[in-house]
Amino acid sequence: MSADARDAPLADLDERALVEACRANRPGAFDLVVERHRRSVYQLCYRFVGNHEDASDLSQDVFLRAYRGLKNFRGQSSLATWLYRIGVNVCLNRVTVKKPIIEDLDARQHVDASRESQVDRVLREERAAQVRAAIAKLPPKQRATLVLRMYQELSHEEIAGVLGSSVGAVKANFFHALGNLKKILGEMA
After folding, report:
1. Contact (Cβ atoms closer than 8 angstroms) between residue 155 and residue 183
2. Is the full-model pTM beyond 0.85?
3. Whose CA is closest to 180, among 101, 172, 49?
């Protein structure tokens, strides 16, 4: 680590310097990694398991694995992409072991409830629960692709990097995920 990176405040470090600070066991460096990425990692986990408690547990597992594996991070992708890759693997492992318990996400954080009628709110929450339940029924790779594309807003190229597959495979999985989601939602109606 350069002398400038050793002496610079952690908050001022770019991603590469922050990773080096973590590898050098600089106090607070990994805490900053967690602080910068905890929301997106949590959201990714939540989209896989559908409830807050499991998403929190999985997020902690992601960061624990990242901490242990940081020495192997080569920097060929962004730190966020590497964390997503760990997150997808952790979530896919959990989903294959445990059937998710779907709980309502507090949708009011995104909707102005003062302008929404009670009936509209109930219908929106009911539809959101149906979509989450349908996503939970998708095959793991389709679910991962859909979650990363729709909720994390990653490009096909970024998703390919996270999943370790080709862009063509990501596009095919996304296409099939949308078709299967439409079919599942049609069956639920």
Report:
1. no
2. no
3. 172
Question: Tokens standing for 136?
Answer: 């939970």
Interatomic CA distance for residues 99 and 33, integer angstroms: 30
The SS3 assignment for 75 reads coil
Confidence of residue 82 (pLDDT cuts 50, 70, 90): very high
Q: How confident is the model at residue 55 (pLDDT cuts 50, 70, 90)?
A: very high
Are 31 and 18 in contact, with CB atoms under 8 Å apart? no
Q: Which tokens hold the place of 69? A: 């594996």
Among 128, 153, 141, 159, which Cα is nearest to 91's?
141
- Measured CA to CA, the distance from residue 40 to residue 13 in angstroms comes to 20
Closest CA to 170 of 143, 131, 130: 143
Residues in the chain: 189
Q: How far apart are CA 135 and CA 105, in angstroms?
A: 14
Find all residues with CB under 8 Å of 8, minimum gap 6, and list them.
17
For the record, the structure tokens of 135 come out as 């996503």
pLDDT tops 70 at residue 33: yes
